[in-house]
Design a protein that fits this description.
- By secondary structure, the chain is an alpha/beta fold.
- It has one domain: Rossmann fold (3-Layer(aba) Sandwich), CATH 3.40.50.360.
- Helices cover 28% and strands 16% of the residues.
- The chain contains six helices and eight strands, in the order βαβααβαβββαββα.
- A hairpin with a 2-residue loop joins strand 4 and strand 5.
- The N and C termini lie far apart (47 Å).
């Protein structure tokens, strides 16, 4: 069996100040078969090389979105990556009269850090909802592109971690990457749901 190819997309607007994402990125870079792309270093002007990003994603078996949670979502450059790279007619939808899902059959792993503690993501906490309530947009984006959404790795309270807790978290991350796809929970996951976009739901050239 060939060694799986892993693409890690890191999106942190101030990585030099990161308590969690910087050591995670360093650990990923030390692993064979893992390509790490630091989006804010690559695209400080927010001009994304779509062809290069699509080629990197298409070559991977596992795509990792690694970023801090910002306003209950992803940092702006990560969102721009989705907007431009996961294009209609390539990642989802139709092109030339056929369904297109260039990434279908691959896995997507979300690796998040939050400033708030786990207790903050609770109906009695100041964020009012469990963490799972903020994940459906990620999961549905994966489904629309034919990606299997793996159970996310979330580290709460990033600013308050002890060195021991941070080391343990980095170890879990590296071990997961090192042993992919041999994760116990993967065998129990259902196949990616079918989410085909009807032609009428997207404008054609004559409609623009």
């Amino acid at each position: 069996m060939a060694t799986p190819s892993i693409l890690v997309l890191v999106a942190h607007p101030a990585l030099q100040h990161s308590q969690v994402n910087r050591p995670l990125m360093q650990a990923a870079r030390a692993l064979p078969g893992v390509q790490v792309r630091d989006l804010y270093a690559l695209y400080p002007d927010y001009v994304i090389d779509v062809a290069a990003e699509q080629a990197a994603a298409a070559a991977a078996d596992l795509i990792v979105w690694q970023h801090p949670l910002q306003w209950y979502s992803m940092p702006p450059l990560m969102k721009l990556w989705l907007d431009e790279v996961l294009a209609h007619g390539w990642a989802y939808g139709h092109a030339g009269g056929r369904v297109t899902q260039a990434l279908r059959g691959k896995d997507l792993w979300l690796v998040l850090s939050t400033g708030g503690t786990e207790a903050a993501y609770h109906p009695q906490g100041y964020n009012r909802y469990f963490m799972d309530a903020f994940l459906p947009p990620y999961e549905q984006t994966a489904a629309l592109c034919g990606l299997r959404f793996l159970p996310p790795l979330v580290q709460h309270g990033a600013h308050q971690l002890t060195p021991e807790a941070l080391h343990a978290h980095v170890d879990v991350y590296a071990e997961r990457l090192r042993h992919y796809p041999d994760w116990p929970e993967i065998a129990e996951l259902a196949e990616c749901p079918e989410c085909q976009v009807p032609l009428r739901d997207r404008p054609t050239a004559k409609d623009i």
